[in-house]
Amino acid sequence: MIALATGLALRDGRVLLVASRYANQPQPLWNLPGGRRLPGELLAETVEREVLEETGLRARVEELAYLSESFDGDRCFLNATFVIAVQGREDPAPRRGDHAIAAAWVPLEEIAEYVSVSVVREPLLAFLRGELSRRYAGYHEAGITIEWPDEPA
User: Fold this and answer.
1) Residue ranges of the domains in the chain?
2) How far is 86 from 108, CA to CA, in rounded Å?
3) CATH number of 2-139
4) For residue 123, what are the contacts with CB-CB under 8 A and spacing of at least 6?
5) What is the β-pairing status of strands 75-87 and 136-139?
6) Less Cβ around it within 10 Å: N or C end of the chain?
């Protein structure tokens, strides 16, 4: 199982999103800031580290928003999405050398236009609408394969 953590930051009717480039994807993918847990790292620590790396903003975890899981073949991904508060400049900026290439505050009504991966988009939109009653979303098929920069091809 691969453990992931993402952060949901809301500000003035906008959500913080990050565009990341992956070797096996033709276009950058937009998502909440976050990523894979490092060995010995708690998921709350993961999201705070990843938000800083991908946006330059300091994050503080406030609460667990929801869990989502999906399968890409035999690999299971478990993602914890946390509601976070962020501090820092108004314009987020990814750290040089990271796979994140852009960060932006996106109006709530435009999220579906940015986030193309359904296993990311659907639970996020359901949570924001207050329709994710169990705070859980599960998918037998992720519908996408991501190759991270530090993974062998």
Assistant:
1) 2-139
2) 17
3) 3.90.79.10
4) 66, 68, 81, 132, 137
5) unpaired
6) C
